[in-house]
Amino acid sequence: MRWTEVRLIIEKDSVPATQKLLEACDSLAVTLSDNADQAVLEPGPGETPLWPWVEVCGLFEATANRGHVNDALQAVGHQGDITWREVEDQDWERAWMDRFEPMQLGEKLWIVPSEMPPPNDPDAVIIMLDPGLAFGSGTHPTTALCLQWIDARPMQGLTVVDYGCGSGILGIAAALKGAQTVVCVDNDPQALEAVAENARRNGVTGQLTSMDPAQFAHHRVASSGAAIVLANILARPLINLATVLCAALAEDGALVLSGLLEEQHEAVAQAYHSSIPHFDAVSQDGWLRLDGARTGQPVE
User: What is the overall mean pLDDT for the chain?
Assistant: First the structure.
C-alpha cells in the first residue's frame, strides 16, 4: 500500500497549531524533526524542547486531497515551500530516520540508530539512540566534544554525573564504558523519560539513575563527590551552577563543561576559579569544551 506525505519547514511557535491543523485534515501521523543541526539547550520545567526551525511531516492516505491540505496550510500563513512525496508502506513509519547514519565519535564510540546495523568492530562501544525531542543525539559539536572526551578515557568502576543530561547520551556512554554509577540530572520531565528509555535500550538501567535538580540536591553523590562531572549546557547556567557542580566533584575528580561559545571561555572559567584554577580548552565549530580537575591541574 502507498501513502502520501506533506513536508514543510516552520518556526517552533507554529508547531502546535500546525499539528492540530494536519490532524483536522485527517493526517494519520505527524512527525517533527530538526531542520538544521541546532542545539536545543536548557528547556524550562515542563516545556517541550523544540528546535528553532522544525520540519513537520504529515502522513496521509494516498487518496488524500492535497489541494485541500495545501489550502488549509496557506490559510493559516504557511506560504513557503510545501512539498509532497509518495511513501511506500514499508518505510513510512521510519521515514524521519532517512537522514541519520551511524556516527563515530573518537576511536571506539559509535552512535547507531536502533534499526541500523552496528559497525563491524568487536571493540566498538555502541550507543543505540534515535534522534528525538530531548537534546543530545551526538550531531551537535557540544555533544560531540563531550563524547570524544569520554571515548578517550577509562570509566571502569567510576561514579559519573551528567548534569543537564537531555537524552542521557553522555551518561549512557560512560555507563557503556564501565562506569559503575551514573547520575543523570535534568529539569525537564520529558528528558528524564527519554533517559529511562534510552538506558533500557542500551542495557544500562542498573548503572544509571535519573532525577531532577531538587532530587539531586539530596542525593549522596551531590555531596560525597563523583569521579567525573559532565555538564553540556549553556554558559549562563554553567556559571550559575558552579557551586553545585564543584560540590558534586570528588577530590582529584574531572570536570567537563561544554555548551559555551569560544568568547564565553573566560567568564565560565572565572566562575570555577576558586576550585579549579586551570582548564584546558578544546574547540569545534566555534563551540568550546573546558576540561579541568579539582586539584587545579589540567586533565591528562
Answer: 83
Please tell me the distance from the alpha carbon of residue 2 to that of residue 4, in angstroms, as a whole number: 7
Kindly report the three-state secondary structure assignment for every residue of the chain: CEEEEEEEEEEHHHHHHHHHHHHHCCCCEEEEEECCCCCCCCCCCCCCCCCCEEEEEEEEECCCCHHHHHHHHHHCCCCCCEEEEEEECCCHHHHHHCCCCCEEECCCEEEECCCCCCCCCCCCEEEECCCCCCCCCCCCHHHHHHHHHHHCCCCCCCEEEEECCCCCHHHHHHHHCCCCEEEEECCCHHHHHHHHHHHHHCCCCCCEEEECHHHHHCCHHHHHCEEEEEEECCHHHHHHCHHHHHHCEEEEEEEEEEEEEHHHHHHHHHHCCCCCCCEEEEEECCEEEEEEECCCCCCC
pLDDT the model gives residue 1: 59
> Which of these, 164, 153, 184, 189, lies nearest to 260 by C-alpha position?
164
Residue 232 β-bridge partners: 258
Residue 298 has pLDDT above 60, yes or no: no
Q: What does pTM read for this prediction?
A: 0.67
Q: Are 151 and 106 in contact (CB under 8 A)?
A: yes
Q: CA torsion, points 8, 12, 16, 20, in degrees to nearest 10?
A: -10
- Contact by Cβ (8 Å): 252, 295: yes
Which of 53-57, 105-109, 131-135, 176-180 is the most confident on average?
Answer: 176-180
Give the C-alpha separation, 253 to 243, whole Å.
Answer: 15
The whole-angstrom separation of Cα 172 and Cα 202 is: 8
Q: pLDDT tens, 76-101?
A: 888 667 899 887 654 444 444 455 67
